[in-house]
């Protein structure tokens, strides 16, 4: 793999990792206490999906940089 391809793929992985790390902040909602009762958020599914995405990103980094 050429250095240009490694740079391109590392930027893609970095952008993906940043979006994964910042996305939990969108689940936190500000609301007043008199608001209608909301359905509870399924945190287990959210955490599981982040763990899977993180594993895929780590595997991609391993393939790009350490496997020849």
Keywords:
68 residues, 63% helix, 2 helices, mainly alpha
Explain the overall architecture:
Keywords: Membrane, Transmembrane, Transmembrane helix. The protein has one domain (1-22, 41-68). Helices cover 63% and strands 0% of the residues. The chain contains 2 helices and no strands. Helix 1 (3-22) packs antiparallel against helix 2 (43-65). The longest helix has 23 residues, at 43-65. It is elongated, with a radius of gyration of 17 Å. The N and C termini lie close together (8 Å). The relative contact order is 0.16. The model has no long low-confidence stretch (mean pLDDT 76).
Write the layout of secondary structure elements.
Elements: H1 3-22, H2 43-65
Helix pairs in contact: 1-2
Transmembrane segments: 7-27, 47-66
Keywords: Membrane, Transmembrane, Transmembrane helix
Summarize the structure.
This protein is mostly helical. It has two helices and no strands.
DSSP helix count? 2
Average pLDDT level: 76
What integer value in Å does the Rg equal? 17 Å
| Total separate domains | 1
Number of β-strand runs = 0
Portion in beta strands: under 5%
> SSE order in H/E notation?
HH
Which class do the helix and strand fractions yield? Answer: mainly alpha
Helix percentage: 55-70%
The largest pleated sheet is described as: none
Query: In whole angstroms, how far apart are the ends?
Result: 8 Å
**What best-fitting shape do the alpha-carbon axes yield?**
elongated
Residue runs with pLDDT of under 50 for 5 or more positions: none
């Amino acid at each position: 793999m050429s250095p240009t391809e490694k740079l391109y793929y590392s930027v893609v992985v970095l952008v993906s990792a940043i979006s994964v790390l910042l996305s939990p902040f969108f689940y936190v909602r500000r609301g007043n206490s008199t608001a209608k009762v909301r359905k509870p958020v399924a945190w287990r599914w959210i955490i599981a999906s982040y763990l899977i995405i993180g594993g895929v990103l780590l595997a991609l980094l391993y393939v790009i940089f350490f496997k020849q």
